[in-house]
Amino acid sequence: HYFLNPEEISYCKADGSYTEIFTEKEKIYAGRNIKYFEELLATEKYFMRVHRSFFINLKKVAMYQARESIY
């Protein structure tokens, strides 16, 4: 088992049935899918799903740049 303060998480990336959890210091490979961690962290208001493979800690976002839509 691994204990991690949610505020230390920068983002999570889906890898099939596994999830890569990124902090400023390390990458943790977890044996659960990304949906599990998304639900686990749902009470933390600063996490946001930005893609089917990623959710991020909004407190760690330094800059956001929108791309022009091609539609």
What descriptive keywords fit this protein?
single chain; 71 residues; mainly beta
Major beta sheet, strand line-up? 3-2-1-5-4
Helical element count?
1
Ends distance: 46 Å
SSE string: EEEHEE
Mean pLDDT: 92
- Biggest sheet record: 5 strands, antiparallel
Number of strands: 5
User: What structural category characterises the helix and strand content?
Assistant: mainly beta
> How large, in whole angstroms, is the Cα Rg?
13 Å
Low-pLDDT windows of residues: none
Name the overall outline: globular
Strand coverage percent = 35-45%
Amount of helix: under 10%
Short recap of the structure:
By secondary structure, the chain is mostly beta strands. The chain is built from 1 helix and 5 strands.
